[in-house]
Amino acid sequence: MERKTSLIGYPIVIIITIIITFLVIKKCDNPTPPVDPPEEIISLNDAIELYSEYTTNRSCIIKAYEGGKDSIINTLCPSKRKPDLNFIPSRAFHLEEEFLEQYLAYIKQVTGDTVKVSGYRLYLGNYPDSTNLRDGKGIRKLDKRRNTIFIAPTMFHEQTNAHRGFTFIDKNNDGKVELQFIEELLESGESPVGEGKESQDSRINTASFFSFYSTSFNDEISTIANELGGSPPY
Global pTM? Predict the structure, then answer.
C-alpha cells in the first residue's frame, strides 16, 4: 500500500514542481518595467524651502488675520468673524489611497466616453465659521475657518487653450444635465442653477450615461470632492 501511494505521489510532486518553475522563469523573463519618476518630483530640500516660504509669507498673515491682531489686514479684508487668538492655520492635506481610487473610478463612471478628462485641478478654499456649507454638508468643529482644498477633473478647452475644471448640473431645471466649467462661477460666487443661463460651450449630450445615475444633489451630478483631511490638527 505504501509503495502504491509513493508511485502516485511522485508524479504529482513533479508536475507541481514543473508548474512553479515555469511561473518563476516566466516572471523573470517578463519583469515589471521600472517606472520613471514624474518631472514634477522635487527634492526634500525644495519641499522644505516651499514650506518655509509659506510659513514666513502666508501662514503668519493668516494667523494674524484670524486673531484680529493686524488692523491694516482687517481693514483691507474686512470679516464678520470674531477674532480667535488660538487659531492655527492648516499646513497640509491628506489624500487617502482608498479615496483616490474611488474618486478616479467615480469620475470615469460619470464621464463615460463622452468627456475626455485631461487631468485634475486642486482649488484652494476656506471653511466658513459655521456648522454647515450652503447645501447642508457638515463642517467639523475643528475645521471651522481653516483652509481646505477641493478637487475637480479638467478637460482641455480649445477656445481658451486651457485645462478647465468641470462638473455636471441641470442648470435650467429641465431634466437635461450639462457639463459646466467652474472657474468663472467660483470667481463670481454665484450658483448657475435655475438661472436659465446657458453657455454655448457647456452643453453636452449626457443622456446616454446619466439616465441611470443619481446623487444626493437633486440638480447636480457633482465631480467635486472635498474633506480631504486638512492638518493641523493631525
Answer: 0.71
Q: How far apart are CA 5 and CA 180, in angstroms?
A: 72
| Mean of the per-residue pLDDT values of the chain | 78
Q: Are 145 and 127 in contact (CB under 8 A)?
A: yes
Residues 84-104, mean pLDDT to the nearest whole number? 89
Q: How far is CA 173 from CA 12, 16, 127, 194, 212, in A?
A: 68, 64, 28, 6, 18
CA distances from residue 79 to 76, 103, 180 in whole angstroms, order as listed: 10, 34, 30
Quick one: cell of 93?
492635506
Q: What angle do CA 42, 44, 49 make, to 5 degrees?
A: 90
Pairing relation of β-strands 92-93 and 162-169? Answer: unpaired
- 3 state SS of 54: helix
Distance CA 110, CA 204 (A): 13
End-to-end CA distance of the chain: 67
Distance of CA 56 to the CA centre of its chain: 27
Instruction: Give yes or no for a contact between 232 and 91, defined as CB atoms under 8 angstroms apart.
Output: yes
The x, y and z cell numbers of residue 81, run together, are 468673524
Does residue 26 register a pLDDT over 70?
no
